[in-house]
Amino acid sequence: MNNERNNFRTKIGIIFATAGSAVGLGNLWRFPIETGNNGGGAFLMIYLIAIIFIGLPLMIAEFAIGRSTHANIATAYKKLSNNRFWNKIGYIGVFSATIITSYYLVVAGWTVFYLIEALSNGFSIEVTGGLEDAYTDIFSNFIANPFLSVIYTLIFILMTHLIIVKGVQKGIEKSSKIMMPMLFIIIMILAVCSIFTPGAKEGLTFLFKPNFNKITTASLLSAIGQCFYSLSLAMGCLCTYASYFKKDVNLIKTAFNISLIDTLIAILAGVIIFPAVFSVGINPEAGPSLIFITLPHVFQSVFGFSPVLVYIVSILFYVLLILATLTSAISLYEVMTAFISETYNISRNKATIIISITMVLLGSFCALSMGELNWIKICDRNIFDIFDFVSSNILLPITGMLICLFVGWKMDKDLLYKQITNKSRNTKDRHLTFQAILYYCIVFLLRYIIPIAIAIIFIDGLGII
Ligand code: TRP
C-alpha cells in the first residue's frame, strides 16, 4: 500500500534538505564549544582535514547505499548483503537515531523556550549580582522545572511531527526550501553585527590563527567526533535521504556541496560567537553553557546601548537555532519513519504517530532527568548525559566504522562504482578518468584510513588507553 516511494523533486531541494540535516546544534552549539576548548584556529585546521578525508568519503558511502537500494536503512543493508552480520547495521542505525533524537529534541525544546523568552524581552533583566549569574539562574531554573522542560520538548515534537507527516516532497523538501534560505540570511546578518563589536579583532584572531601548542591527541579525536556529528554521519540520516535521490544526482558533487555549506555555517557560527564573547571578556572555553547562558549576557552587554538592537539580535539568534535544529530533527525522524512504515507496511501517518508517542515518552524522560528524575544515575551520569554519551561516543563510531568496512570490503564494487561515478565500470579500459581516480581514493580511505582513525577515537573516547 505504501510502496510508491516519493523522491525529492529538485536538485536544489536535495541540497537544502540534506544541508538542513547537517546544519544544526552541531554547528551552532557544539562547534564553538569544541573550538573554544581546543585552542581555536589550530582546531579549525584539523577539523577541515577530518571533513575532507573522513567526512566526505563516509558521506559518499552512505549516499551510495541509500541511492542504490531506494529503501529505509534496515532494508537497504539487507538488499545489499545476505550475510546475517552485515544485515544488522541498519538496525543499529534505527536504534541510534531513536536515542539521539530523544535527547536532541530536549535541547531543541530549550531553543523554543529561549525564543519565547527573547520575544517577551525576558533577557533584559535588572541584575543585582553578576550578570552571568542571572542568566545561569534562568537556565538552571528552566531545565530543572519539570513542567516547562517537558512542555517545550513536546512543542518541538509537534513541530517535527507536522512536517514529517506531510511526506518527503511536501514536508521535508518544501520546509527545507523555506527554512534554509532564512537560516543563511539570519546567520549573515548576525555575523556582520558581530564583526562590528569591540572584541572582533581578538575573537577572529582566536578563531583563525592556529596555535599548535594547544593541540593534543584529544583535540584530534574531538575534531573527528565533531566531523561525524556535524555532518549527520553514521546514523542513517544521509542514507535515508539518499534513498529519495533520483538516479542522475551526482553523489560526489552533492556530498562536496553539503560539506562545504556545513563547514561555512560552522565557521560563521564561530564568527558570530567569538568576537561577541571577547567583547565582554568571557573565557571562550565556557563550555556547553556558551549559547544558553553566555550569549544572552553577551547580547545585553555588547548592544546594551540600544535595547531595540538587543531585542532584535536575540530574537534572530534563537530563530536561527530553531530553524537549524528543526531541519536536523526532521532528518532523524525520517530514519525512523521510513523504517517503521516500510518494514511493517503501515501508512506514513500511523508510523509518525507511533514515533511521536515514543519520542514523547523518551524525550520527557530525558527532559526530566535534569530535574525531578536526576536521582536516576548510571556511572554518575543522568539519563540525558547517558543518551548523549552512548550515542556520540559509542554508537556513532561503531556504526561509522561498520559502514566503512561494509562499503570498502563487502559492497559489490561494480554497483559502488556506478553509484559514485554514475557510469558503468569497464575493467578493460586502462585509461583512468578523474572520476575513476576519485572512486579509488574513496575506496582506499574507506578500507584502511577511516576505520583505523575511528578505532582510535573509540578506544580513546572510552578511556581504554
Ligand atoms: N548534524 C546535526 C547537527 O549538526 C545533528 C544530527 C542530525 C546528527 N542527524 C544526525 C548527528 C545523525 C549525528 C548523527 O546538529
What does this structure look like?
The protein is mainly α. The protein is 75% helix and 0% strand. Helix 4 runs antiparallel to helix 5. The longest helix has 37 residues.
CA(first)-CA(last) distance: 52 Å
What's the oligomerization state?
A: single chain
Instruction: Please give the share of residues in helix.
Output: over 70%
Percent of residues in β-strands: under 5%
Shape: globular
SSE string: HHHHHHHHHHHHHHHHHH
**Rounded Rg:** 22 Å
Ligand list: tryptophan
Number of H/I helices? 18
By helix and strand content, what is the structural category?
A: mainly alpha
The poorly predicted ranges are: none
Work out the number of β strands: 0
In this structure, how is the largest beta sheet organized? Answer: none
The mean pLDDT is 90
Annotation keywords:
0% strand; 75% helix; mainly alpha; binds tryptophan; 465 residues
Quick structural overview:
The protein has 465 residues and is mainly α.
Describe the protein's topology.
Layout: H1 11-22, H2 25-37, H3 41-69, H4 73-80, H5 89-119, H6 131-144, H7 146-165, H8 168-195, H9 200-208, H10 217-230, H11 237-242, H12 251-279, H13 290-302, H14 307-343, H15 348-368, H16 383-410, H17 413-421, H18 434-461
Helix pairs in contact: 1-8, 1-12, 1-14, 2-10, 2-12, 3-4, 3-10, 3-12, 3-16, 3-17, 3-18, 4-5, 5-7, 5-14, 5-15, 5-16, 6-13, 7-8, 7-14, 7-15, 8-12, 8-14, 9-12, 10-18, 12-13, 13-14, 14-15, 16-18
The structure holds tryptophan (TRP).
